Amino acid sequence: MRNQTSSSRAYQLPATGDLATLVDEALEDTCASDTRLAKVTCVVIAAAVRDILTGHEPDGAFDAVRLELIEGMDHELFPSGRYWTAAGEPRTFTEAVGEVEAGNAVHDLSERTMYLNDRTRDVWYDLCTELEDRDGRPAYALDLVQAAALAHDEPEPSPGVQPLSEMVDAMVCANDRDRYPAKVDPVDQRDGFVKPWFDLDTVRRIAENTQADAERYRHGSIDTVHVLDGTVDGTAHAVVVVVSWMYLGSERREQATEILQPNAVGRYAVGGHDWCWYALDDDLKPQIPFTP
User: Fold this and answer.
1) What region does 266 belong to: left with phi over 0, alpha with psi -120 to 50, or beta?
2) What is the rounded radius of gyration, in angstroms, for the C-alpha atoms of the chain?
3) Rounded to 5 degrees, what angle do the CA atoms 145, 151, 152 make?
4) pLDDT 10s digits, 63-91
5) What is the DSSP letter of 155?
6) Which pTM does this prediction carry?
7) Measured between alpha carbons, how far apart are the two ends of the chain, in Å?
8) Contact of 68 with 139, CB cutoff 8 Å
9) Cβ proximity of 223 and 271 under 8 Å
10) Residue 206, SS3?
11) Cα–Cα distance between 43 and 39 in angstroms, integer?
12) What does each C-alpha distance from 229 to 119, 131, 200, 226, 239 come to in angstroms?
């Protein structure tokens, strides 16, 4: 059999100039994104430790200056629940807030610290002091004072550029698993996390998923959403209720339930900023902060 020469090109390349330069630019963009994610994550961790020790009172006094983090098998960092005061005294969340609250705190905090990994090591490693290994795994003490200071290291907006204030469509997530469509105001962000507004059908999905998670992982670690349907004078109504079960046994028990009010177009801000919702990009990767 005789080999034949093709009469046309197998494929066309776009006229983009130096393709190697495009690769370099893409890598630079990725590194910049990782750096931004690490900085925001460090600030969020510092804020979370403050909230744990003050009972979510931003103006409350607390004494943590370093936080112990353990490196996992995949090189992601996780909190042990141990911290140090300014006087160098080691303490634990359990000693400070009790066993149940501490367990919930470590669980929630680990969802943030996991973004401190090999890809973001250039940022977080400089904020850490190496400790003796814990159970054969590398351990570090994150300087919370330096981590919090990263909040003041954000670039100023370019002159003449006005921030967006209109709602835009975005896919959001709060647990690295469940994703929901929402409307988001790009200006309304806290430490890079957004405050999504959901339609009622999506709220029903969130309610179903949170209740299933509570059954699976215990109610003390999950806020559950409930949609109560009823009819008054022939008009159907839906009431959206959020239950923070972990508050029931604490001084915040009066804040354990919240009735959500819809906005003018019937959307609900489930979780608000407290759930640390983050927007996802087109590849369904976290986009912190959110830029439409």
Assistant:
1) left
2) 23
3) 100
4) 899 999 999 888 899 999 999 998 889 99
5) P
6) 0.50
7) 57
8) yes
9) yes
10) helix
11) 6
12) 47, 54, 11, 10, 6
